[in-house]
Amino acid sequence: MKKCLILLTNYYPFHKGEEYLESEIKYLAANFHQIYVISTMVSNDMRQTRTVPDNVIVLPVGIKHSKFRKVNMLVRQYRKIHKDEEKKIMIKEDSKGKFLPKVYCYYFESRSMEIYEKVKDKLNKYDFRQYESITIYSYWLYVTARVAVELKNDFFKDKKPNTISRAHRYDLYEDAAPLKYLPERDYLLNKLDAIYPCSQDGVDILNKTYPAYTDKIQVERLGTVSTGVVSNTRNDKLYIVSCSVIRKVKRLDLLIEALKELENLKIPYLWTHIGDGPEFNNIKKLAIKKLNMNNVTFTGFLKNNDVLNWYKENPTTVFVNLSSSEGVPVAIMEAISMGLPVIATDVGGTREIVENNVNGFLLNRDCTVTDIINCFNSFYNMNKIKYDNLSKGALKTWNTKSNAEILYSRFAQKIAERSE
C-alpha cells in the first residue's frame, strides 16, 4: 500500500527550530512511501540547513516577511473572507464578538488562506493519484493546522485524508497568549481527526476546555536521541548550564538575580548559557551589570550537534530552566539523556520529566531567588552518592519518557496505520 505523508512545518528543514523533527523524520520516512515537507514560513532567500531522507521532497512556500506583504495579504484575503458567510459567522462566534480577538481571527484566517493558496500551487505539480492513502500532519496546532484542514476539505477532498496535528506550547496554552485567546480552536479540533499534545498537561487542558473532543486528543511525547555522552562535574564549583532561545518567557533575568546572590554568599560557580534570541543583548547587558563576568559564558547559537559536543567537552553540575511557560523543553530532555540533574519550574509538561529528589528539583512557577539559591546550595553541598542517584534518575526518566527511538518509531507506525 503506497502511503503519502504531507508534513506541514513552520521552517524545518530550513533556518532553525523544530529540532525534534531532525530525529523524527527518519522514522516517518520508514513508514511512508513518500513525504512532502511543506515549510510554510520560509522565504525565498532562506537556505535549507538540514538534510532529509531520500524519499522526502521539500517544498518551501516562499513567503515574504515584509510589513508591506503582510498588509497586502490581509487586505486581499479579508475581501475573500468577508464574502464567505460561513467564515464570517465562524469568526464572530469564535471571537465572541470581541473586537481584538475578532481582528486576530481575521488575521489568522487570512494568513492561513494565503499560505494555503501557495501550498496548493506547489502540490498541483505532483500526481497524488498514485497513493492509496494520504496523511496530512501539521506540526503545530496553529496556522499549519488550519492549512491542513483546508487541504483536507478542498485539495484532497476526494482522497479522504487522515488529518492530524501535534500541539506544543504557544499553539496550545491560551492563558499564555497575548489576548488569552487563540483563534479557531473549536473549529480546528472539530475538523482534525486527531490531536497530539506533547505532554499530558496539554491533553488535560484541551480536554477541560473542549470536552466534546476528548476522544480525538492523546499525548504523544517528543524525544531526543541517545548521544552516548554522559555529563561530568567537578567539586571545585557549581557548573551551571542553561540552554534556550533568549526570550522574556525564559526568565534568565531571574537566574541572574540568583547568581548574584551566589556571589554574595561566596559560592563559586560558572554559568554557561547556550543560545541566542531577541533578548540576547538585554540579558548580556544585565549580566555584565550584575555579575562577575569571569563566572559567565554566552556561547550564542549552537547547532544541535555542537550543543552535544559542548556537553562532552565541559564539566556540568546542573541544568537550569526557570521558564514561566513551557510545553516539554527539549533542552531538559537533552540534559537528562546525559544524566545531568535539573532545576526547573513547574510549568506546562515539565513536571512530567523533572521530579523532586529523583532527577533534580521542581520549583513553583512563581519561585523566588531564595528558592533557587536553596537548590544551588543543595547541589553545592551534595555528597557523591546523592548526586550519582540524581544522575541515574535523570537517565531513567529519559529512557522511560523521552527516548526518541522508542517514541518516534511508535508514533510514525501509529499514524501510518491510521490511514489504512
Keywords:
Rossmann fold; 420 residues; 6-stranded parallel beta sheet; alpha/beta
Report the total helices: 14
Helix-strand category: alpha/beta
Fill in the CATH topology of the largest domain: Rossmann fold
Major β-sheet strand ordering:
3-2-1-4-5-6
Order of helices and strands: EHEEHHHEHEHEHEHEHEHEHEEHHH
Largest sheet: 6 strands, parallel
User: How much strand?
Assistant: 15-25%
The average pLDDT value, as a whole number, equals 94
* CATH architecture label name of the largest domain: 3-Layer(aba) Sandwich
Q: Would you count the extended β strands for me?
A: 12
Q: CATH top level of the largest domain?
A: Alpha Beta
Q: Could you estimate the helical fraction of the residues in percent?
A: 40-55%
> So what's the overall shape?
globular
Query: How large is the radius of gyration?
Result: 23 Å
Tally of distinct domains = 2
CATH-level-4 superfamily name of the largest domain:
Glycogen Phosphorylase B
The low-confidence runs, each spanning 5 or more residues with pLDDT under 50, are: none
Instruction: Measure the end-to-end span.
Output: 8 Å
How do you describe this structure in short?
This protein has 420 residues and is an alpha/beta fold.
